[in-house]
Amino acid sequence: MSARDGQRARVYDAEGLVRRMFDRADEAGARTVELYGSQITLPVERRFASVESVQNYVDLVLSLNWVRAQWVRSSEVVTVRARAGAGAAHYEAEGAVLAVPLHTGGSAWALRELVILHEIAHHLGEPGADRAPHGPEFCSRYLELVDGVIGPEAALVLRTSLLGCGVRLS
Questions:
Q1: Which residue of 1, 23, 56, 138 has the fewest CB atoms within a 10 Å radius of its CB?
Q2: Residue in 59, 65, 152 with CA at minimum distance from that of residue 98
Q3: Taking the CA of residue 112 as centre, how many other CA atoms within 13 Å lie in the half-sphere pointing to its CB?
Q4: pLDDT digits over 95-108, tens only?
Q5: Among 6, 12, 63, which Cα is nearest to 20's?
Q6: Which residues of 14-46 are buried (b: 16+ CB within 10 A; e: fewer)?
Q7: What is the pTM of this model?
Q8: CA gap 119, 1 in Å, rounded
Q9: Is-contact 53 169, C-beta < 8 A?
Q10: Three-state SS string across the chain, please?
């Protein structure tokens, strides 16, 4: 039996804030945002068009040298599949499957880098090592991925949003 996932809602709230910040930057064509009095230039967040493009991205992230050196499970193949409904992307530990909703209702909210890195962070956790699916260990792993793949500015925005929403990190 896994531990209660007490941070889940707070993690999702923080991610929602970050996604909206990236969306507004894309819409405005201005990548500079103010964060606690500092000017931060947001990097571009990759978007995906299909299961195949997500699969290619997952394969590339898991093959990065620093990811391979950091997490043993990076050598385990992850299969990406379409998920019915638009509610959420999720990771299925049994079979190492990342399920992502595609274009539904004119939206492809889950076909973006932050969402896919979140699911990869679930995959990279050692089975049974995380006390809760969205606990401090997961959050720190997710931040490391965002920092190394999207960039330190994105990780700073995510970290401050997580902390601002009351999320604990390891």
A1: 1
A2: 59
A3: 17
A4: 999 999 987 656 67
A5: 12
A6: bbebbbebbeebeeeeeeebeeeeeebebbebb
A7: 0.92
A8: 21
A9: no
A10: CCCCCCCHHHHHHHHHHHHHHHHHHHHHCCCEEEECCEEEECCCCCECCCHHHHHHHHHHHHHCHHHHHHCHHHHCCCEEEEECCCCCCEEECCCCEEEEECCECCECCCCEHHHHHHHHHHHHCCCCCCCCCCCHHHHHHHHHHHHHHCCHHHHHHHHHHHHHCCCCCC
Q: What is the CA radius of gyration of the chain?
A: 15
Quote the CA–CA distance of 1 and 148 in Å, as a whole number.
32
**Edge-to-edge strand ranges of the sheet holding 90-92:** 79-83, 97-101, 90-92
- Angle, helices 113-124/51-63, rounded to nearest 10 degrees: 50
109-143: per-residue pLDDT in tens? 889 999 999 999 999 998 766 667 899 999 999 99
β-sheet bridge partners, residue 32:
41
Site of tokens 């929602």: 16
